[in-house]
Design a protein that fits this description.
alpha/beta, six-stranded mixed beta sheet, 5 helices
Length: about 140
Amino acid sequence: MSKNIIICGVGGQGTVLAAKVLSQAAISKGEHVLSAETIGMAQRGGSVVSHVRIGDDAFSPLVPQGQADVLIAFEAAEAVRNIDFLKADGTVIVNKKIVQPVTASLSGKAFDTDEMLDYLQKRAAKVVAVDTDQACR
């Protein structure tokens, strides 16, 4: 049985590196791994999504929508953007910290962490919210 994992965030947060580390760990255990990244505007703080598929029944590197077992989000708004990848009984692991996009800052609009976490809890079987600043301290 395969495991499908989406790792998402914004450029510079290390999502691509995290996918490579996860993939290498699975390979070192003898697992078949396929992975891919969609990085687009990453250098400008844009959205980054990494797909990691572990298991012999994975034939494509991209996780189909509705098939991710786990969504690991380095930024809460990216979790909201990518929630459609998660399967009904999937788990979201999300950083509580918001990385406010420049366009939102310029417009005077603010992202609300609690509102995003509430939305995720309505859409996912399990949500684990992590205060990464506190964890690093």
